[in-house]
Amino acid sequence: MMTKISILLMAAFMSVQFFAQTNDYSVREVKNGLYIPWEMVSAPDGSIWFTQRHGAISRLNPVTGEIKQLIFEQNVSINNGEGGMLGLALHPDFPNTPEVFCSYNYLVNGNDYRQKLVVYEYNPTTDALTFSRLIIDNIDAAVIHNGSRLLINNNKLYMTTGDAADLSYPQNTSSLNGKILRYNLDGTIPGDNPIPGSPVWSFGHRNPQGLAMMGTKLISSEHGPSNDDEINIIESGRNYGWPNVEGYCNLPSEITFCNANNVYEPAKSWTPTIAVCGIDFYTHPLFPQWQNKLLLASLKNQALYVLTFNADQNTVISQVDIPEISFGRIRDVLAAPNGKIYVSTSNSNNVNNKIDKIYEIYDPTPSGLHTGEAVALKDSWTASPVPANNLITIQNKSNNGKAEIDLVDMSGKFIKQIHFEGKQMQIDITDLAAGFYYLKIKENGSVSQVLKIQKL
Q: Pfam families from the xrefs (predicted)?
């Protein structure tokens, strides 16, 4: 263990380091001195772009911690509440189409609080953003309940809006509040939206502050009042009940309303509330115990949760928090393309108290195997189930023939070697102690892939 710590401390940028032998991940602080990093997105070059509520859009190098502010929007107003510079999305063909979508709150005539959705253009020569065009403005806003997350999928832009503390808005489809909106990337209304000429995609929302794709399904997290935080599966034209329904349709008046108004019940509801916030669906093999599960940031419970859905992906069947992730209130979570996970905190009291941080959850292996070999995680080989009690099935999707598989523990200690030939085989792990292990797959004399397994 001391050897692992010594090696990890050699990296100067790892200013904070946590590791436990019972876990297969480490955590480091990437950047501090931030003011409520609201939404983080991955760029094609591996950088992370993020908003801060006081008006900044910045780019972060997650390796070095270097940050570049790309714009500070002077029109942003926090209004002593939950508003400010909020949702963020990059054009799917970025940087060839260097457009950055953002939603923020602003004041009209000094006291009329509003929200807008705009597009900035990135200039690589000046390394800065400039205003390009407006998509929608004059959305009602308030000190609380403003949403707002952005997501682009299949060249459609989705935006969550809160009810702006007005209970008349969510069920009124003429209002843009308490909704999930859907636009074409040029700002026009898609012809297949449920209400012709309207950006409203779904309604009956209170304050949705998380948005992600789970395969082909759009998923949202939504704050309840003192009860019934929700995870919702979003479908076109569906009603999500607020304010007539809180959580599931389980009271007599709610059942009547749900039956009459095509209400879609949540996939998960929490009472008491945990203050759900940012979500992301994790698909990478880097952490197989979280693969194909929903990551959820919690403000109130100050935790990062992993939610498992049933086979039909319409109900959450289990919830666990990731141990040792305790950074205070967590605002957003980002599953990066390389499998690393980033979380941002929400602990700053005001713009003069910038104490928020972005952390990285990463895998210290395979460099921690002490082999000196540079191994890239690929997808030719798979191991399942993870975790397992007795048998692990190893599959070779490329069917390249023979391989040698070294079973090693978390410290890199060799346990045994398995000779593999063909397409599939089973490995008996009954005698292993509970914990995490690695399978080093050697093809033609060199390590081609590392698989991670867990013995229960």
A: GSDH (PF07995), Por_Secre_tail (PF18962)
